[in-house]
Amino acid sequence: MATHPDYPSASSFEDRHGRTRWRFRRNGKTVALPGQPGDAEFVAAYDAAANGRVLKKAQIVRLSSSVEPGSFRDAWRKVKKTSEWLALDEATHLKNTTLAEEFLEMPLAPGLKEKWGDQLVRDFRRRHIKAVIASQIETPHKAKHMLVAIRKMIYVALDEEWIEADPTYKLSYRPEYKGWRAWTEAERAQFEERWPVGSAARTCYGLALWLGNRRSDVSRLKWSMFDFERRRVTISTKKGDKDLVLPITPMLLEILAPLDRSKEFVLLNAYGNPFSEKSLTGMMAHWTKLAGMVKGCTLHGLRKTLGKLLAESGSTTRQLMEMLGHDDIEHAELYSREAEQQKLARDAMAKLSRKLSIKKAPERRN
Asked: Is pTM beyond 0.70 here?
């Protein structure tokens, strides 16, 4: 007989057929545990025995849509009816739906037919959510966002009083995140050499770089937003739903000069139509590839490039927030901290170099 280190009071034994079986023993009571440690059925039976409950199979009451009440599928259906969900934009809906449906179709464990979508939320344990996250280890950012989607179902279960506690409470998953990197000066020069002013590629590049806009705002930019007399452009951002009044710089004027202002939108494709938000990501990858550039030079990276250039020129954190449309100081400080670190390091080494140079200077002889 051997006990399991992760499951106190659970011990194994061999039956008369030589097969290893498990049981839970405590205070003179013995409960048979099906399967092997780590199996969904084993964990469910162990949890019930350890908490003094009799494990019962949930009574199946099928709805017209074949969704079991209190299950994760039921929770997800209710999520999509909440006011919080209805207030989210289409892109957020798509991302959360994709991840939620993947979780609902995920088997409880490799080789099992049972799926998480059909399980009762009340049987969900902390170890389960950790196992789900661990299964996405190769795509850490996907795991982070899947946790967000699952939490939406957990919150519904709390509101419906299916459960009394959140199994994901204080469970955080924050993979190392560097995000889209800024373009280097050499990369910008390489792109500009390949794509002349007036081309769609150069226009997209210039708008993202000199306005610091997200792709959603670049694709929606209209000539009616520009006030060339006052040298400013007013942009109603899609993300954050607020107005940004930004200066029209000489760099931006150079980009806009050869464009046809008789059209409604500033950035147009070869057919004279505006680009869709999603297509711009792929188009920038296409344009950089044609320019012979390495991967990693993204559209959002141009926004980071402007932030980096502003920070290096001495812009304050508040100025960065207003220019880039950040709502929180943390994002803007990423640029200013990096620039400040470089400046302090450079100044410190310059002082040390001057000090050592003075010491090494040869003494004058009369």
From this structure: no
